[in-house]
């Protein structure tokens, strides 16, 4: 789960995420997405739900929030790049954001 | 509460915050502080408590979190600078981080 993603895994795991609003981060082996909600309460509600899964999986995002927007960056510091955990958390966040 | 801080108010309201770890943001009339906690759960717990007050007061921070760190920037967009609301939320956050 925490090996760096192989080229094959990138095709199968990352491609659907990149089609769904995630993008590679310039200069880093990381993915980023901006979620927009109706207001702060909705945005922070999303963060709270995501935080519980992040803690449960011991895999934490880099993220920022300004009012109704949440910008999430995912990478795996232990492998200095993307792992399956990032894809798993990204999929979960997409589900939680509805 | 949402007027831009006068010079006098800056002396009385901002000075104690700047002594307590807040700093002016370069190029903006805003203040910023980095809080460090023992782990993610403590950091996000702080954010959750602060979010409730921010929503209650309808005054929201710009903030980011990476694992045990939370960086908070406060300013009042309506007045294009610092207001008493920023000082009030900064003091509350310091208490909550306690």
What does this structure look like?
In chain A, α2 (40-56) packs antiparallel against α3. Chain A is built from three helices and four strands. The model of chain A has no long low-confidence stretch (mean pLDDT 96). Chain A starts with 6 loop residues before the first helix and ends with a helix. The first copy, chain A, is 45% helix and 19% strand. The first copy, chain A, has helices at residues 7-19, 40-56, 84-97; strands spanning 23-24, 31-36, 62-66, 69-74. Chain A is of the alpha+beta class and 98 residues long. Chain A has a single domain, classed as Transcriptional coactivator/pterin dehydratase (Gyrase A, domain 2). Chain A has a four-stranded antiparallel β-sheet with strand order 1-2-4-3, with helices on one face. The A-B interface holds A 40-41, 44, 47-48, 51, 54-55, 60, 62-67 and B 40-41, 44, 47-48, 51, 54-55, 60, 62-67.
How would the blueprint of this fold be written?
2 copies of one chain form a homodimer.
Chain A: H1 7-19, E1 23-24, E2 31-36, H2 40-56, E3 62-66, E4 69-74, H3 84-97
Antiparallel strand pairs in A: 1-2, 2-4, 3-4
Helix pairs in contact in A: 1-3, 2-3
Describe the oligomeric state of these chains in a short phrase. Answer: homodimer
Largest interface, Cβ cutoff 8 Å:
A-B, 15 and 15 residues
Strand order, sheet with most strands of chain A: 1-2-4-3
Helices and strands of chain A, in order, run as HEEHEEH
What does the largest sheet of chain A look like?
4 strands, antiparallel
Rounded average pLDDT of chain A: 96
Tell me the domain tally of chain A.
1
Q: Which residue ranges of chain A are poorly predicted, with pLDDT under 50 across at least 5 consecutive positions?
A: none
CATH overall fold name of chain A: Gyrase A, domain 2
Shape of chain A: globular
Class based on secondary structure composition and strand pairing of chain A: alpha+beta
If classified by CATH, what would the architecture of chain A be? Answer: 2-Layer Sandwich
Number of contiguous helices of chain A: 3
Beta-strand percentage range of chain A: 15-25%
State Rg of chain A: 13 Å
State the helicity of chain A in percent bands: 40-55%
Termini separation of chain A:
25 Å
């Amino acid at each position: 789960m925490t090996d760096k993603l192989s080229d094959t895994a990138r095709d199968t795991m990352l491609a659907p995420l990149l089609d769904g609003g995630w993008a590679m981060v310039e200069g880093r082996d990381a993915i980023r997405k901006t979620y927009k909600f109706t207001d702060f309460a909705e945005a922070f509600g999303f963060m709270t739900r995501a935080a519980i899964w992040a803690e449960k999986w011991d895999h934490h995002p880099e993220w920022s929030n300004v009012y109704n927007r949440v910008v999430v960056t995912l990478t795996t510091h232990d492998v200095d790049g993307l792992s399956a955990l990032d894809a798993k958390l990204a999929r979960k966040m997409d589900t939680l954001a509805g």
